[in-house]
Design goal:
Structural class: alpha/beta
CATH superfamily of the largest domain: ATPase, nucleotide binding domain
Number of helices: 14
Helix content: 40-55%
CATH architecture of the largest domain: 2-Layer Sandwich
Radius of gyration: 40 Å
Strand content: 5-15%
Number of domains: 4
Shape: extended
Largest sheet: 7 strands, mixed
Order of helices and strands: HHHHHHEEEEHEHEHHEHHHH
Number of strands: 7
Length: 342
């Protein structure tokens, strides 16, 4: 009884080509080109085919159990634990419990594959979908104003919620006269200050003076996150970035989400924040200057570091001011140098 040989599609193609070579209808170079192999390898396969037949074309590992295959007893143990002891655990948790309590270390994907083959799916607890944060409705239809701040001129776009329309983007100067002009424009639109919500993008100190001015005059001011504003502008398909485009895009964003309201801060706390920022800047600048001094002295006056441990100490700085180089110190002599170091 002849042995049954199973060949895949690629091996069947090899068999057809080799048979064509045996019949003399195809030469070795043509067979190599069809199979995508080298001529030498085709000749090697043909020699084995003539000796062993079609069985020589089948992969040698076909039908063999992989060396890293999981033992059947362990597979049954996993299924038993998954259906009884640890029933209800998801795949990740079940994998961790197997390693901690049963001493069976497998990957999550292996455990999942074993359970799925037996028809056991991982329980999924779906969380209720979170809706995006919406801005609370205002008691009456009013106007949303988005201000795009800059160093010399601010630009404003007004959205009228009652008419669902937008105004043109208009600028005003960053000074008292410009702020008064802006306030006058708002008064022409409505005398009721509660009709307005004014958004200012949080871009450093440019919008602080405008925010203080508006808050002191009783207007509602909210802060727009610049990162979210940039992402929203990109989502609208607006690749260009100008003050006019920003003002219009931010006016739309202001009407869609809830934003952080601003208030006039305590003057003492505000001054402390400014002093803290100023101190941090000074410390950073001093560190940069000290590093620059160390580099310069290492190049021009390396011997000084062996005598004085701290090159940025008051003693070292006084010495460098009086004698800015080794030749000056050698001319001055030990007595004068000692007077400075004393």
């Amino acid at each position: 009884m002849k042995e049954m040989v199973t060949l895949n599609r690629k091996e069947q193609k090899k068999l057809v080509v080799l048979n064509q070579m045996e019949k003399g209808k195809m030469i070795g170079r043509e067979a190599a080109e069809v199979l995508g192999l080298s001529l030498r390898h085709v000749r090697r396969i043909l020699a084995v085919y003539r000796k062993e037949g079609a069985a020589a074309l089948a992969h040698g590992n076909r039908g063999r159990k992989p060396h890293n295959a999981l033992d059947e007893s362990v597979r049954k143990q996993i299924l038993d634990l998954g259906q009884r002891t640890y029933a209800g655990c998801n795949n990740q948790h079940f994998t961790e419990l197997l390693a901690e309590r049963e001493g069976i270390t497998l990957s999550r994907s292996s455990v999942r594959r074993i359970l799925l083959k037996a028809g056991i799916r991982s329980p999924r607890k779906r969380r209720p979908p979170k809706h995006r944060s919406r801005r609370e409705r205002y008691p009456q239809e009013g106007m949303l104003l988005q201000t795009d701040v800059s160093k010399h001129k601010h630009k404003v776009c007004i959205r009228n919620l009652a008419q669902d329309s937008y105004s043109g983007v208009f600028p005003f100067d960053v000074n008292r006269q410009g702020f008064e002009k802006f306030s006058g424009t708002l008064k022409k639109l409505s005398q009721n200050k509660e009709d307005f919500v004014i958004g200012i993008e949080a871009t450093g100190s440019y919008g602080v003076t405008l925010a203080y001015f508006l808050l002191s005059h009783g207007y509602r001011v909210v802060e727009i996150n610049p990162y979210r504003a940039n992402q929203f502008r990109k989502a609208q398909g607006k690749k260009a970035k100008t003050d006019r485009i920003d003002a219009r895009s931010l006016a739309v964003l202001l009407s869609l989400e809830n934003h952080k309201p601003l208030s006039i801060p305590d003057p003492v706390l505000d001054n402390l924040r400014e002093l803290t920022r100023f101190r941090a800047d000074m410390v950073q600048e001093r560190t940069a200057l000290v590093n620059q001094l160390h580099e310069t002295l290492t190049t021009l006056y390396p011997e000084l570091g062996r005598v004085l441990a701290n090159l940025d100490s008051p003693t070292c700085l006084a010495l460098l001011i009086a004698y800015p180089g080794p030749e000056y110190i050698s001319r001055a002599g030990e007595v004068k140098v000692a007077e400075i170091l004393a």
